[in-house]
Amino acid sequence: MPVGVPKVPFRGPGDEEASWVDLYNRLYRQRALFLGQKVDSTISNQIVGLMVYLTLEDSTEDLYLFINSPGGWIISGIAIYDIMQAVQPDVQTVCIGLAASMASFILTGGEITKRTALPHARVMMHQPVADLRDKTKAGEFIMEVGEVMAIYDSIVNTYVQRTGKPSWVIYKDLERDIFMSAEEAQAHGIVDLVGLE
Q1: Chloroplast among the record's keywords (predicted)?
Q2: Which is the catalytic residue, given 44, 69, 76, 101?
Q3: Is 31-194 a domain of CATH 3.30.565.10?
Q4: How far is CA 58 from the centre of its chain?
Q5: Neighbours of 44 (CB within 10 A)
Q6: Residue 188 known to be catalytic
Q7: Residues 67-92: pLDDT tens digits?
Q8: Where are the domains of the chain?
């Protein structure tokens, strides 16, 4: 029998009695957001919407983004990263399992000094990938390659800015899948802390 999403009691401001809400809605009200799946347009839009809503509700209190994701779509991940930079509250990122591919990019986007990986977390970086099969016209193929290269350079520049590593190191890292422990991710500048302090 599937467990589903657990319900927890919650009493909102002005409510006389608590009502039952699902666990994630309760945690959202505490400004805790979760990326626990492949990054796609649906989850990206949900996280972006929640960040904007919570910022409008209180622009002074930090947001917390807990990440356990294999990565996913590049543009959807960049949307999450960009909104993290745009909202007024600091966004604290916490890797609670795996932050791979685009999820490692999002993890890096947390407020510098407030990016954390739990002790057994893993981080994986690699180059952005595009599906260039089934391109029937040479011009279409060339345009897509050009766009992929522009995005690739943008991602490299962001990693350089956020990690403090020189671009040649980032380019070398992105040539292949590079898996890191929490401590290695900290030494690499992707996170600032290991464990919750």
Answers
A1: yes
A2: 101
A3: no
A4: 21
A5: 23
A6: no
A7: 999 999 999 999 999 999 999 999 99
A8: 31-194
